[in-house]
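In this supplementary section we document a worked example of the pipeline. Step one takes a protein sequence of length 239 as its only input; no multiple sequence alignment statistics are reported here. Step two produces a three-dimensional model, which step three serialises into structure tokens for compact storage. The input and output of this example are shown verbatim.
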Amino acid sequence: MPGIVLHTSASRGEADHGWLYSRHTFSFANYYNPERIHFGALRVLNDDVVEAGMGFGTHPHDNMEIVSIPLEGDLEHKDSMGNVAVIRHGDVQVMSAGAGITHSEYNKNSGKPVKFLQIWVFPNKRNVTPRYDQITLNPADRINRFQQILSPDPDDAGVWIHQDAWFHLAKPENGITLDYTIKKDGNGVYAFVLSGEVSIEGHALTARDGIGIYDTDKITVAAKSDGAEVLLMEVPMEF
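The serialised model returned by step three reads:
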């Protein structure tokens, strides 16, 4: 039998800073739950809303793979490597913090918030040269199939990180069932429901619920409503 951890949307940590509203799947900042430190190499899954004209000032990171997935609005990025970029819905951004970087993120929109996922993954190499990249995806490529958005291979689809991890997005239409096969022995999958209703390994999930599954070689995702979208994050359980 596979191992399963279930995290409902309402059970997540919460932080309201006025300019920033965030829900934390795993312990982060002032939210601490000893039973929710990480899922394998997946350390942080933050569901952030940044108000118009606001943002994160310059701050440091090191030895972490940081992935940002915008869900609504535009987010401006600046970093100590000289990168200045705007990421939008449909983009995926990655930073290998490695030996150390500083960066800032701002919502430059005047009238609407930015919503994005901030994801941290423990790397398999320390003190690497910091790196930045972003890509624009075609949302049509995830309808009724898994669209790869991240892998360990720079020559594969999506962005890449220093870890044996694979991320996929899927938008199965109501009634469609998709099977996902684990790519590396010892890895598990954390599934995060972005919208709609799905069943994963027999568990009914709705928007912003999460489920981690390990000790298995595949998982099944079935859409139970229109507008379902799921993010799958395959990561090593030991690292």
